């Protein structure tokens, strides 16, 4: 979790992932993420402990996630700041978040980057391209309006379910596009 706006996206992802029994959750919190979570949700570091099995400091480069020998199904950076995107795109591993992302890519595991910025500059787009070419999935948190989302929480839940899909886990409450047949389309 980085310091980009959208702490609710991380919170809802962790809540929805908790409902899929076989997922063990490891959370890395950057200092900026903690600040953003405090500002946006009123949450402090201790408030995240019930949402993950293990929480790491962003500067703990000796953590298991820093090694490819630690098996994971993949990694999600949600929300993903443009600074973190740039670091991932260019292989700059100066903290545990970017090192774990580098490990995820080199081990050919799924890396999902929920990038949070608008509008996008050419530098942002190029970094997204580089990250994609390296094997990451760039997934801005764009709501699927066909899912009938009417609240921020519902939009964040729907996005969380899509991210879980990308990691190979299906959430029982995921809204699926049915083709519009019931609408007479």
TrEMBL record:
Binding site for FMN: 3-5, 30, 81-84, 116
Keyword entries, A-Z: Flavoprotein, FMN, Lyase, Prenyltransferase, Transferase
Catalytic activity: dimethylallyl phosphate + FMNH2 = prenylated FMNH2 + phosphate
Residues engaged in binding dimethylallyl phosphate: 146, 162
Coiled-coil stretches: none
Main EC class the enzyme belongs to: transferase
EC number(s) on file: 2.5.1.129
Listed PANTHER family: FLAVIN PRENYLTRANSFERASE, FLAVIN PRENYLTRANSFERASE PAD1, MITOCHONDRIAL
Protein name, as recorded: Flavin prenyltransferase UbiX
Provenance organism: Hydrogenophilus thermoluteolus (Pseudomonas hydrogenothermophila)
Gene of this entry: ubiX
